Amino acid sequence: MKLLRCPVNGVRPVSEFAYGGEIRSMPADTCSDIEWAHYVFNRSGVPGVKVEWWYHIASGTWFHAERDTVTDRVLRTWLPGDLPPAADGKAA
Amino acid sequence: MTATMRTSPLAVAVAGRKPELREVHGMPVPARFPGERDTWKATIGICDVSALVRAGLKGPGAEAWLAARNVPVPAAANSWTHAGGGLVARLARTEFLIEDGCDDVAAARLRAELQAGEPGVYPVIRQDCALALAGAAVNELLVQTCNADFASQSAADSIVTLTQMVGVSVTVLRDDRGTVPCYRVWCDGTMGPYFWETLIGIAEELGGGPVGIASLFADTAT
Fold first, then answer.
1. What does the pLDDT look like over B50-91, one tens digit per residue?
2. Which of A84, B113, B134, B167 is deepest in the core (most CB within 10 A)?
């Protein structure tokens, strides 16, 4: 069973979570149409460590997760607005 | 003039079993099921307690709002405490569930006061299917239906667990009835009939079944 740590509710099976996508910066409202279209339609598929949105379905908790997409290992999770905890490699 | 009657999310699901109904807080709920005996205490009894009145609120000002009304507020996230005959559960950091007992009116009063509106305090509509799962073998049912480890919890831990059972998002806490282990479970009312039928099926395989609210809550037995 794959496990994920919700910052509020603790370690739970990944079936209790939904993936919300990689966290990306929105371009400024003065950006070009091409830049905006790139932001809306394109995603980076480059493997590596990424910070993503995840959602704990049972409690309605959105949080951040730093995940290595090469190994599918979650390094740490934290709530938006909180400081990320030290990466201990035990989050998943 | 027509009086409005509250309806349990499980009203249709339990009707076929022809229970003796009793009105609790304006909602008819099964008080006893035909042939019901106390043997459920040694196995599993599942009780519809949706009639108990609930109030929900969330927001950065929710904790102070409750404290100003002398409502005991659990200090830690995902913990709960008794309040009169009912309970106060803290869900995450800034969301609360208050539920009355059979004879309380605290949640009803808070719900009315929430309508006045206050910055940073937001009402949460609670139209839950509320169950009590009780009996010595209740952990066997939880093991079959849920990934959270309830066997390691005791009632004294006062833990609130938000997880999923049989695919349904639930809020669970342990509130024993005397010496009988008892878990309180809330889920979305629209999932209630599926949730009830699934749990009852498993409970009956384990020798238990549905019980009325009069069996679990002595204060409704009259």
1. 999 999 999 999 999 999 999 999 999 999 999 988 999 999
2. B134
What structural domains and CATH numbers belong to chain A?
1-20+45-92 (3.30.2270.10)
Contacts of A9 in chain B (CB under 8 A): 78, 92, 161-163
**Full-model pTM:** 0.89
Q: Work out the angle between the directed axes of helices B138-145 and B192-205 (0-180°, nearest 10).
A: 120
Q: Do A58 and B162 touch (CB under 8 A)?
A: yes
Distance of alpha carbon A26 from alpha carbon A28, whole angstroms: 7
Residues B138, B47: Cα–Cα separation, whole Å: 12
What pairs with residue A22 in β-bridges? A52
Set of chain B residues whose Cβ sits within 8 Å of the Cβ of A15:
147, 164
